[in-house]
Amino acid sequence: MNQITQNLDRVKQRIADAAQRSGRQPESIRLIAVTKGVNVSQIQRIIAEGVTDIGENRIQEAQEKYNIINQCKENATQEKKINYNCEWHLIGHLQRNKVKSALEMFSLIHSVDSIRLYKEISNRSIDKEKPTRVLLQVNTTGEVSKFGIAVDELFGFVENVHTYPNVEICGLMTIGILSASPEDNRSAFELLMKLSETIEQQQFSGVNMQYLSMGMTNDFEIAIEEGANLVRIGTAIFGTAN
Protein backbone atom coordinates (compact mmCIF):
# COMPACT_ATOMS: atom_id res chain seq x y z
CA MET A 1 0.00 0.00 0.00
CA ASN A 2 1.24 3.49 -0.87
CA GLN A 3 2.67 5.43 2.11
CA ILE A 4 0.30 8.35 1.60
CA THR A 5 -2.64 5.95 1.56
CA GLN A 6 -1.44 4.38 4.82
CA ASN A 7 -1.00 7.81 6.40
CA LEU A 8 -4.44 8.90 5.26
CA ASP A 9 -6.04 5.77 6.73
CA ARG A 10 -4.34 6.44 10.07
CA VAL A 11 -5.50 10.06 10.09
CA LYS A 12 -9.08 9.02 9.32
CA GLN A 13 -8.99 6.53 12.19
CA ARG A 14 -7.65 9.16 14.58
CA ILE A 15 -10.40 11.54 13.50
CA ALA A 16 -13.00 8.83 14.09
CA ASP A 17 -11.60 8.03 17.53
CA ALA A 18 -11.54 11.70 18.57
CA ALA A 19 -15.10 12.18 17.31
CA GLN A 20 -16.32 9.22 19.31
CA ARG A 21 -14.59 10.51 22.47
CA SER A 22 -16.55 13.74 22.09
CA GLY A 23 -19.85 11.93 21.45
CA ARG A 24 -20.00 12.82 17.77
CA GLN A 25 -20.23 10.90 14.52
CA PRO A 26 -16.96 10.66 12.55
CA GLU A 27 -18.88 11.71 9.44
CA SER A 28 -19.52 15.10 11.03
CA ILE A 29 -15.80 15.97 10.76
CA ARG A 30 -14.46 17.13 7.41
CA LEU A 31 -10.82 16.45 6.66
CA ILE A 32 -9.13 19.21 4.69
CA ALA A 33 -5.94 17.85 3.17
CA VAL A 34 -3.37 20.65 3.23
CA THR A 35 -1.39 20.47 0.00
CA LYS A 36 1.11 23.30 0.48
CA GLY A 37 4.38 22.07 -1.05
CA VAL A 38 2.68 18.90 -2.35
CA ASN A 39 2.84 17.96 -6.02
CA VAL A 40 -0.15 17.24 -8.23
CA SER A 41 0.43 13.47 -8.37
CA GLN A 42 0.17 13.32 -4.58
CA ILE A 43 -3.04 15.34 -4.71
CA GLN A 44 -4.39 12.93 -7.30
CA ARG A 45 -3.52 10.06 -4.97
CA ILE A 46 -5.59 11.41 -2.08
CA ILE A 47 -8.48 12.32 -4.38
CA ALA A 48 -8.45 8.73 -5.62
CA GLU A 49 -8.68 7.68 -1.96
CA GLY A 50 -11.85 9.73 -1.52
CA VAL A 51 -10.56 13.05 -0.16
CA THR A 52 -12.95 15.80 -1.27
CA ASP A 53 -11.51 18.90 0.45
CA ILE A 54 -8.19 20.46 -0.55
CA GLY A 55 -6.56 23.25 1.48
CA GLU A 56 -4.01 25.68 0.06
CA ASN A 57 -2.12 28.54 1.70
CA ARG A 58 -0.98 30.57 -1.28
CA ILE A 59 -2.88 31.79 -4.33
CA GLN A 60 -0.11 31.35 -6.90
CA GLU A 61 0.76 27.80 -5.85
CA ALA A 62 -2.91 26.85 -5.68
CA GLN A 63 -3.69 28.22 -9.15
CA GLU A 64 -1.42 25.81 -11.00
CA LYS A 65 -2.68 22.77 -9.08
CA TYR A 66 -6.31 23.87 -9.37
CA ASN A 67 -6.02 24.17 -13.16
CA ILE A 68 -4.43 20.74 -13.54
CA ILE A 69 -6.96 19.02 -11.29
CA ASN A 70 -9.80 20.71 -13.15
CA GLN A 71 -8.37 19.42 -16.42
CA CYS A 72 -8.25 15.94 -14.89
CA LYS A 73 -11.89 16.39 -13.91
CA GLU A 74 -12.81 17.20 -17.50
CA ASN A 75 -10.92 14.16 -18.79
CA ALA A 76 -12.00 11.77 -16.02
CA THR A 77 -14.65 9.98 -18.06
CA GLN A 78 -12.08 9.22 -20.75
CA GLU A 79 -9.31 8.17 -18.37
CA LYS A 80 -9.93 6.71 -14.91
CA LYS A 81 -13.09 6.58 -12.87
CA ILE A 82 -11.90 9.02 -10.23
CA ASN A 83 -14.25 11.59 -8.79
CA TYR A 84 -12.41 14.90 -9.10
CA ASN A 85 -15.30 16.89 -7.65
CA CYS A 86 -13.51 18.44 -4.70
CA GLU A 87 -13.83 21.71 -2.82
CA TRP A 88 -10.85 24.01 -2.48
CA HIS A 89 -10.25 25.90 0.76
CA LEU A 90 -8.03 28.93 1.22
CA ILE A 91 -6.51 28.47 4.67
CA GLY A 92 -3.65 30.97 4.44
CA HIS A 93 -3.57 34.74 4.77
CA LEU A 94 -5.36 36.53 1.93
CA GLN A 95 -4.14 39.87 0.61
CA ARG A 96 -6.75 42.21 -0.80
CA ASN A 97 -5.04 42.33 -4.21
CA LYS A 98 -5.45 38.54 -4.48
CA VAL A 99 -9.20 38.43 -3.73
CA LYS A 100 -10.31 38.25 -7.37
CA SER A 101 -8.10 35.20 -8.01
CA ALA A 102 -9.20 33.58 -4.75
CA LEU A 103 -12.88 33.86 -5.63
CA GLU A 104 -12.26 31.99 -8.87
CA MET A 105 -10.92 28.93 -7.06
CA PHE A 106 -12.01 28.56 -3.47
CA SER A 107 -15.33 27.31 -2.14
CA LEU A 108 -14.54 28.54 1.38
CA ILE A 109 -12.09 31.19 2.57
CA HIS A 110 -11.00 30.44 6.13
CA SER A 111 -8.84 33.47 6.80
CA VAL A 112 -10.88 36.69 6.78
CA ASP A 113 -9.26 38.87 9.43
CA SER A 114 -9.99 42.53 8.62
CA ILE A 115 -12.90 44.73 7.64
CA ARG A 116 -10.96 46.00 4.61
CA LEU A 117 -10.54 42.45 3.35
CA TYR A 118 -14.20 41.66 4.03
CA LYS A 119 -15.27 44.74 2.04
CA GLU A 120 -13.05 43.74 -0.87
CA ILE A 121 -14.55 40.26 -0.92
CA SER A 122 -18.04 41.77 -0.85
CA ASN A 123 -17.24 44.12 -3.74
CA ARG A 124 -15.61 41.39 -5.81
CA SER A 125 -18.53 39.02 -5.24
CA ILE A 126 -21.17 41.22 -6.90
CA ASP A 127 -21.34 39.12 -10.07
CA LYS A 128 -21.35 35.73 -8.35
CA GLU A 129 -24.55 33.67 -8.42
CA LYS A 130 -24.14 32.79 -4.73
CA PRO A 131 -22.59 34.66 -1.80
CA THR A 132 -18.93 34.03 -1.11
CA ARG A 133 -18.63 31.78 1.93
CA VAL A 134 -16.04 32.81 4.51
CA LEU A 135 -14.82 32.05 8.00
CA LEU A 136 -13.53 34.71 10.36
CA GLN A 137 -10.03 34.02 11.60
CA VAL A 138 -9.72 34.69 15.32
CA ASN A 139 -6.46 35.06 17.20
CA THR A 140 -7.39 32.96 20.22
CA THR A 141 -3.79 32.62 21.45
CA GLY A 142 -3.02 36.34 21.64
CA GLU A 143 0.24 35.94 19.71
CA VAL A 144 1.26 39.24 18.10
CA SER A 145 2.89 37.35 15.22
CA LYS A 146 -0.40 35.76 14.17
CA PHE A 147 -3.06 37.07 11.86
CA GLY A 148 -6.61 37.08 13.14
CA ILE A 149 -9.26 39.22 14.75
CA ALA A 150 -8.64 39.89 18.44
CA VAL A 151 -11.06 38.03 20.70
CA ASP A 152 -12.40 41.22 22.27
CA GLU A 153 -13.01 42.75 18.82
CA LEU A 154 -14.81 39.80 17.22
CA PHE A 155 -18.36 40.67 18.24
CA GLY A 156 -18.00 44.25 17.02
CA PHE A 157 -16.47 42.97 13.78
CA VAL A 158 -19.51 40.81 13.08
CA GLU A 159 -21.86 43.68 13.92
CA ASN A 160 -20.01 45.89 11.43
CA VAL A 161 -19.85 43.53 8.46
CA HIS A 162 -22.84 41.20 8.58
CA THR A 163 -24.99 43.50 6.44
CA TYR A 164 -22.43 43.72 3.62
CA PRO A 165 -23.88 42.04 0.51
CA ASN A 166 -22.61 39.00 -1.35
CA VAL A 167 -20.77 37.40 1.59
CA GLU A 168 -21.92 34.74 4.03
CA ILE A 169 -20.09 34.17 7.31
CA CYS A 170 -20.18 30.42 7.89
CA GLY A 171 -18.14 30.09 11.05
CA LEU A 172 -14.80 30.74 12.72
CA MET A 173 -11.20 29.62 12.29
CA THR A 174 -8.18 29.69 14.55
CA ILE A 175 -4.59 28.45 14.64
CA GLY A 176 -3.12 27.09 17.85
CA ILE A 177 0.40 27.64 19.10
CA LEU A 178 3.16 25.37 17.84
CA SER A 179 3.82 23.15 20.83
CA ALA A 180 5.06 19.66 21.58
CA SER A 181 1.99 19.19 23.77
CA PRO A 182 -1.37 19.27 21.95
CA GLU A 183 -3.04 19.98 25.29
CA ASP A 184 -1.52 23.45 25.23
CA ASN A 185 -4.11 24.41 22.60
CA ARG A 186 -7.20 23.03 24.31
CA SER A 187 -8.08 26.37 25.91
CA ALA A 188 -7.77 28.22 22.58
CA PHE A 189 -10.08 25.72 20.87
CA GLU A 190 -12.54 25.80 23.75
CA LEU A 191 -12.59 29.60 23.50
CA LEU A 192 -13.38 29.51 19.76
CA MET A 193 -16.33 27.22 20.43
CA LYS A 194 -17.68 29.60 23.08
CA LEU A 195 -17.28 32.56 20.72
CA SER A 196 -19.15 30.63 18.04
CA GLU A 197 -22.02 29.90 20.41
CA THR A 198 -22.25 33.54 21.49
CA ILE A 199 -22.40 34.78 17.90
CA GLU A 200 -24.98 32.13 16.96
CA GLN A 201 -27.27 33.34 19.73
CA GLN A 202 -27.37 36.84 18.21
CA GLN A 203 -28.94 35.57 14.96
CA PHE A 204 -27.22 38.11 12.73
CA SER A 205 -28.46 38.11 9.15
CA GLY A 206 -25.97 36.51 6.76
CA VAL A 207 -24.21 34.77 9.63
CA ASN A 208 -24.26 31.16 10.72
CA MET A 209 -21.81 29.18 12.77
CA GLN A 210 -21.86 26.04 10.64
CA TYR A 211 -18.10 25.51 10.79
CA LEU A 212 -15.33 25.57 13.34
CA SER A 213 -12.03 25.27 11.50
CA MET A 214 -9.34 24.39 14.02
CA GLY A 215 -6.73 21.74 14.49
CA MET A 216 -3.71 20.71 12.44
CA THR A 217 -1.38 17.70 12.43
CA ASN A 218 -0.07 18.29 15.95
CA ASP A 219 -3.38 19.06 17.67
CA PHE A 220 -6.38 18.06 15.55
CA GLU A 221 -7.62 15.44 18.01
CA ILE A 222 -7.84 18.03 20.79
CA ALA A 223 -9.61 20.38 18.37
CA ILE A 224 -12.21 17.74 17.52
CA GLU A 225 -12.81 17.06 21.20
CA GLU A 226 -13.50 20.80 21.61
CA GLY A 227 -15.93 21.00 18.68
CA ALA A 228 -13.97 21.33 15.43
CA ASN A 229 -15.73 20.04 12.33
CA LEU A 230 -13.08 21.19 9.85
CA VAL A 231 -9.53 19.99 10.51
CA ARG A 232 -6.58 21.05 8.35
CA ILE A 233 -4.00 18.27 8.05
CA GLY A 234 -0.96 18.11 5.83
CA THR A 235 2.15 16.70 7.49
CA ALA A 236 0.41 13.62 8.95
CA ILE A 237 -0.75 12.71 5.44
CA PHE A 238 2.14 13.73 3.19
CA GLY A 239 5.07 13.76 5.61
CA THR A 240 6.04 17.25 4.46
CA ALA A 241 6.51 20.36 6.54
CA ASN A 242 3.21 22.06 5.84
Report on this model:
Strands 1, 2, 3, 4, 5, 6, 7, 8 and 9 form a 9-stranded parallel sheet that branches. This protein is of the alpha/beta class and 242 residues long. It is built from 9 helices and 9 strands. It is 40% helix and 19% strand. It has helices at residues 3-21, 40-48, 59-75, 99-105, 115-124, 154-161, 186-202, 220-225, 235-238; strands at residues 30-34, 53-56, 87-90, 108-112, 132-139, 149-150, 167-173, 207-213, 230-233. The model has no long low-confidence stretch (mean pLDDT 94). The two termini are 23 Å apart.
How would you sum up the major sheet?
Answer: 9 strands, parallel
Rg (C-alpha, Å): 18 Å
Terminal Cα span: 23 Å
**Helix-strand pattern, N to C?**
HEHEHEHEHEEHEHEHEH
Mean pLDDT: 94
Tally of alpha and pi helices: 9
Runs in which pLDDT lies below 50 for 5 or more consecutive residues are none
Please identify the oligomeric state.
single chain
Extended strand count: 9
What is the helical fraction, as a range of percent? 40-55%
What gross morphology would you assign? globular
Judged by helices, strands and strand pairing, the structural class is alpha/beta
> What proportion strand?
15-25%
Describe what is shown at a glance:
By secondary structure, the protein is an alpha/beta fold. Helices cover 40% and strands 19% of the residues.
Main features:
single chain, 242 residues, alpha/beta, nine-stranded parallel sheet, 9 helices, 9 strands
